[in-house]
Amino acid sequence: MPFVVAAVCVLLGGCGETAAQPAPVPATERPLLGAPDLAGPTHRGVFLEDPKGQVERIAAGGHFVAWSIRTPADKRHGGYDDVEPKTLPRASKVVVADERTGTTLSVDLGRRWVSTLRMIRGAGGPAEPQLAIESCRTLEPSSCTAELLTLTPEPPLRVTARTRGAAAEAAVDGRLDSGRVLGVASRGKCSARLTVREVDGRTRTLPALPARDPQYRRCRGLNGWMIHGRYAFASVRREDPRHNLEADFFYALDLSAAAPRWAEVARPYNGTDGGAALDIGPGLTDGALYWETYDSVEERIYSLTQVALPRDIETEATAATPNQSEPIAPDKGGACDIAATDAALYELANPRCALDYGEGSRGEIRRLVNPEFRPQEG
Question: What is the pTM of this model?
Answer without folding.
Answer: 0.91
